[in-house]
From TrEMBL:
<keyword id="KW-0808">Transferase</keyword>
<keyword id="KW-0067">ATP-binding</keyword>
<dbReference type="Pfam" id="PF07714">
    <property type="entry name" value="PK_Tyr_Ser-Thr"/>
</dbReference>
<dbReference type="GO" id="GO:0004672">
    <property type="term" value="F:protein kinase activity"/>
</dbReference>
<dbReference type="InterPro" id="IPR017441">
    <property type="entry name" value="Protein_kinase_ATP_BS"/>
</dbReference>
<dbReference type="InterPro" id="IPR011009">
    <property type="entry name" value="Kinase-like_dom_sf"/>
</dbReference>
<feature type="domain" description="Protein kinase">
    <location>
        <begin position="4"/>
        <end position="89"/>
    </location>
</feature>
<protein>
    <submittedName>
        <fullName>Protein kinase</fullName>
    </submittedName>
</protein>
<dbReference type="GO" id="GO:0005524">
    <property type="term" value="F:ATP binding"/>
</dbReference>
<dbReference type="InterPro" id="IPR001245">
    <property type="entry name" value="Ser-Thr/Tyr_kinase_cat_dom"/>
</dbReference>
<dbReference type="InterPro" id="IPR000719">
    <property type="entry name" value="Prot_kinase_dom"/>
</dbReference>
<keyword id="KW-0418">Kinase</keyword>
<keyword id="KW-0547">Nucleotide-binding</keyword>
<feature type="binding site">
    <location>
        <position position="33"/>
    </location>
    <ligand>
        <name>ATP</name>
    </ligand>
</feature>
């Protein structure tokens, strides 16, 4: 059985795509972000940079990073029901 089931697309941004799924190991709804390959760096380097930046943020407006995996398996974080950030740009 796959860890994440019921995967549904939520949105797309400059760095990647975001999906909602059910985490079968932890029994909770999560958001999964798949990082796009950008520039001459490896996809793993992009993922590591984004995850470290996100994990360093300590504010109610930002979600916590639950895991980081430099493989074909995406990372997950809490699923937050909120408006798109696109309206702020």
């Amino acid at each position: 059985m796959h860890r994440h089931v019921g995967i549904t697309a939520l949105g797309e941004g400059g760095y990647g795509e975001v999906y909602e799924a059910w985490d079968t190991q932890l029994c909770r709804s999560v958001a999964i972000k798949c990082i796009k390959h950008v520039g001459g760096r490896s996809p793993g380097a992009d993922l590591m940079r984004e995850a470290r930046l996100a994990a360093s943020l300590r504010h109610a407006a930002f979600v916590k990073v639950y895991s980081l995996q430099v493989r074909s398996t995406p990372r997950s974080c809490p699923r937050i029901r909120a408006r798109s950030l696109a309206r702020w740009t």
